[in-house]
Amino acid sequence: MPRTGPKMTAEEIVAELRGMADEHNREGMARFGIATEHALGISVANLRKLARRAGKDHALAQQLWGTGLHEARILASIVDMPAEVTEEQMDLWVRDFDSWDLCDQCCGNLFWQTEHATRKAFEWSEREPEFEKRAGFALMAYIAWHDKAAPDSLFMSFLPVIRREAGDKRNFVRKAVNWALREIGKRSHALNAAAVALAQSILDSGDRASRWVASDALRELTSDAVRGRLG
Fold first, then answer.
1. What is the CATH number of the domain that holds 181?
2. What is the reported pTM?
3. Which runs of consecutive H residues, i.e. helices, occur in 32-129?
4. d(CA 101, CA 106)
5. What is the pLDDT of residues 201-229, one digit of tens each?
6. pLDDT over 80 at 5, yes or no
7. DSSP for 116-174?
8. What is the Cα 66 distance to its own chain's centre?
9. Residue 2 confidence (pLDDT) above 50
10. How far, in Å, CA of 144 to CA of 149, rounded?
11. Domain containing residue 173
């Protein structure tokens, strides 16, 4: 819900963020492959606490994104309002992605809830920059995870895209391709069967990178835990 009462300004929020900076956490982020040039070392849990105080505010989100600070941009994805997000905004933000966590936070907190999510999943999956392409598959994964009302036909249409890009050798792309395949295969019996068949096909005919995507997905999608959950 939008915040009531006096609003926090972007300047006040940035001042708080700088006061929360933690160099030890920042070093830890770097060890997990997160770009830290513009990071302060603040946990997502603490960002969510600050977001609750700030409230939902589309204009504030734009201002926070414009600061260029890593944590301010994650915070922007939390406080923004999906109904007010345009395709133009999504395309501007995705081009700024410089780290896997910023990509995933934006897709998971905000982008999957917009009316443009499916279109962008297809579109971004064809992009060349690593984190832009990752965003396409992160969107597929988040839609599969969260949107319980989405029809199986939507996810069936994602599978050829997953097949097409499974051979991307870049770590953050192939992990997102694998993630999307696993989330799709956990939605229903029909999707599980289709995802397993696709993974087996990739395993039989793909290169080394795509075989990793397939074999890792198969371990989960054929597990007793997943099959039991599907009933």
1. 1.25.40
2. 0.94
3. 44-54, 58-66, 70-79, 87-94, 100-109, 117-124
4. 8
5. 999 887 888 999 999 999 999 998 998 88
6. no
7. THHHHHHHHTT-SSHHHHHHHHHHHHHHHHH-TTS-HHHHHHHHHHHHHHTT---HHHH
8. 20
9. no
10. 10
11. 87-231
